[in-house]
């Protein structure tokens, strides 16, 4: 009977585990169908794009960029005179180009003579069979009112259309991160109109296959075309040409930012992450000519694979070593990503691996919880034991990385603080040992809480002194600023504590603080039988010397120039005091103290910068 109950309990536990795994996988699949799931697809699309970009250089496509060199060479602001566009059209026609598309909306009438010149140039270019040779951009402008959304069709000048040009929609649909990944569904898009001049068939692709990063398609400057002699005769023969703005400077981008988009290649070269709209249309045109645009694949194969792997994981997770389960899950995920990439690169289909990974991750996470219970219990035991001796941050680091429980250290950039109590001996003479310990306990509790609140680590208590540092065991951004803010708050707390002591008829005490930033060795230092997590090195020594140097200046806080240089622009005002040479050092160190008097800070700075100010030797401190 007992064996039967035990087996029933085991089977019930296994069934509950399987149901939880399947439920987690199902919830992950539902999550992928939400808008958040679309955001998870984007990194994979961009990575696959970068890895599989064909980088074709023999495409019959040329981009004529209205770029910075064109503005400089032509000495003309935007918009350019339309007679220049007329000259460009004539040059392309005479060179034997197949067609040209302008990613520029000529919606407003300009100078009548120049409009007529452009219309005449369009009329002179007649393709065999009546196929339009000049495509002009059209667009749709959206107007949101409080109650409805209105779309306005912005088309080229009728005079230009009557001359033989055809309008092509230049609009694209960027995702939330402003990367254009989807191909326009409009059959009258700019690229579709231009592809018709090459006789390319209609495309069923709904995703863009980029041929490469910005500049991956043959690009020439606009001025090179309209300036005689810069491009050889016949350069454009049998080419499809796209003309549009391609600007990089901030001034020009302000005027044309609506025609600049993020690129899937941005993470490769963040310095040039924007891709001009005209080049996007060139990639779309290349997809149509090569027939290699991407088609959406059914998501059911990834969802089905995720469900199958989740089922297998639920069946074997409780019977296999956790390491084998992790390896199996990772292998399934890698296989899913690999197949998705193969479909992308070779099959021309976009099937995101995100749902498979989400389902596997959710299923594995639920299974892993079961195996992590014992580990968590051990972690709590370690935490409770060591929390009595070391800061909480160190405990967390030791729990996460038990290998740190060995002797040794590493060099880190730290900010080190030393504090000491002035006149504490006089106070201790007035108190019995119990009261002395009580005062010290209140002092240490107060200062430790402030250090921890500012993300610091209290290293040790040395008599009535405190040693703390920032930047270890975990990195702390702006560690110098945290240390200085903590020092100021510690002095404020000290003032309140002194007021309470004086109210009890006890003599006042003071606190001195020294702060220095620099490299130090931090880690478990000591013997094999007894060690502590601490920092050592010249940075630590100098911070201790600066604490004592407060005696020479009558200050409560001294910090080095190294620390001052790391503070942000909104840091507390610092008054420079002197260049000092502390005991054991030969090089002078400039020291500062926080000061709220801007006039005094400015005056001290001028005096210290005056010629002939020798370094102050503090050999006894």
UniProtKB/TrEMBL annotation:
InterPro entries referenced in this protein's UniProt entry, alphabetically: A/G_cyclase, Adenylyl/Guanylyl_Cyclase_3/4, CHASE2, Nucleotide_cyclase
Transmembrane segments: 300-318, 325-344, 356-375
Domain of life: Bacteria
Guanylate cyclase domain sequence ranges: 415-547
PROSITE patterns: GUANYLATE_CYCLASE_2
Keyword terms of this UniProt record: Membrane, Transmembrane, Transmembrane helix
SMART domains: CHASE2 (SM01080), CYCc (SM00044)
Name of protein: CHASE2 domain-containing protein
Native species: Hydrogenophaga defluvii
